Amino acid sequence: MFRAQILTLFPEFFDSPLSCSIPKRAIEAKLVKVDCIQMRDFTTDKHRSIDDKPYGGGPGMLMKPEPVIAAIREARKRDPHTHVVMLTPSGVRFKQKKALEYVEKKHLTLLCGRYEGFDERICDEVDEQLSLGDYVLSGGEPAALSVLDAVIRLLPGVLGSAESAVLDSFTEEGILDWPHYTRPEVFEGKRVPDVLLSGDHAKIEAWRKEQAASRSKLWCRSAK
């Protein structure tokens, strides 16, 4: 079983996404266990303050080290084998290869930030810093959900066909999937490519590789 923990100020954020579709099936089949840990439970003042003003001035608030680090240590206590990942714009870019690495680890804790980010001393308590891309979210929860979903669908037995995960975009570094078609053969004047109707598996395979390569080149240009 894959074990995931999410350190968050909003556990309810994950209720709906984890109760439908592939994550729901994986949880019900006991292929994955997901626990949310409320970081505010580790505050010590009567107001349950998790944030404070930054030294040196500036806009916004920062997440304080005491409750966040206490929550991280609780996660490690619950699962001594866990790999703790801080979700932050300054982290390494999340890619399919990284999702595969997490599958192999089998124990993952995702730390969700809020406000202007974390007190820098919290970074010393995590194993890795991870970013979804060059943009800013209102909090780490959407990023954590994306990472978790990407990992869950790769777990053995989760998808109806194991081949689906193997053939995903980016499973081979930098390569997108090819175009797909289903019935009807003609829709609003647009036909399914003849090669896919030919029954010639060698030609179909060659066409798919060519299309995937072409798509990937266009994606690489647009990503720069």
Structural class: alpha/beta
What is the helix fraction of residues, given as a range?
A: 25-40%
CATH topology of the largest domain: Alpha/beta knot
- Tally the helices: 7
SSE order, one letter for each helix or strand = EHEEEHEHEEHHEEHH
Highest CATH level, the class of the largest domain: Alpha Beta
From the alpha-carbon coordinates, what is the Rg to the nearest angstrom? 21 Å
Task: Spell out the key features of this protein.
two-stranded antiparallel sheet; Alpha/beta knot; 19% strand; alpha/beta; elongated; five-stranded parallel β-sheet; single chain
Structure description:
- With 224 residues, this protein is an alpha/beta fold.
- The chain folds into two domains: 2-152, Alpha/beta knot (3-Layer(aba) Sandwich); 174-223, tRNA(m1g37)methyltransferase, domain 2 (Trp Operon Repressor, Chain A, Orthogonal Bundle), CATH 1.10.1270.
- It has seven helices and nine strands.
- A five-stranded parallel β-sheet has the order 2-1-6-5-7, with helices on both faces.
- The longest helix is centred in the C-terminal third of the chain and has 23 residues, at 201-223.
- The model has no long low-confidence stretch (mean pLDDT 92).
